[in-house]
Input
Amino acid sequence: MKKFKGLYRIESSRLAGWDYGSNAAYFVTICTANRNHYFGEIRDGVMQLSEIGVIAQTFWQEIPQHFHFVGLGSCVIMPNHVHGVIIIDKPDCVFGGNSDNGDCCRDVAYNVSTTIPNQSPGITIDEKMSSISPKPGSLSIIIRSYKSAVTKHAHQVDPHFTWQSRYHDHVIRNPESGCRIETYIQNNVKNWTTDRFKNFVLTPNA
Output
C-alpha cells in the first residue's frame, strides 16, 4: 500500500471503463474530511448517532425516494464514514429483478458481467471527456446528491461539517462477494477497534 500524508491509503478499486450508470450493486464508502467524528461515537459496542449522524442515516434511507431506480442493501453509519450498498435497477434492467424485491433483487444484482468493451481507436478528446463525465442516473450523481443533502442540513448543526471530497466504490460481481460485503457492513460497529478507516485514507474517485 502507498502512503498519503504519512498514512497508508487504500488504492482505488474503480473499474476503468465501467459505466457507473449501469444496473449493478455497488459497495460505497464515504468519509468525513480528516475522518472527524461528526456522526457520533461507539460506546459499549453500540453506535450512538449524533444529530448529524441521524441526518446522514435518514438521507441514506431516503435515496430511493429521489432515485426510483435505486434499491438499498446493508448500510451502517460509523463515527467518521458511511458504508452502504446501492443497487441500480433501471427499467431496462440488465440483470432483471426489481428494487422493491429486497433480497431477491440483491441476489440478482450481484451477478453482473464486468467485461469492458474496447475503446474505439478513433475516439475524440471531447467524446472521451463526455464518456467519463457524471451522467444522469449514475452512481456519482446519486452520491453527490446524498452528500449535498446531508451537508446542507448538517451545517444547521455544525457549520464546520465537511465530507472528504470524493468517495470509494466497488462493483459487486457475484453473490459470494455480496455476502462478504454485507457481513462486513453488518459487523462494522463491533469491529470498530480494528477498523481500517480509523487510520487509513481513501483514495478519492469522483
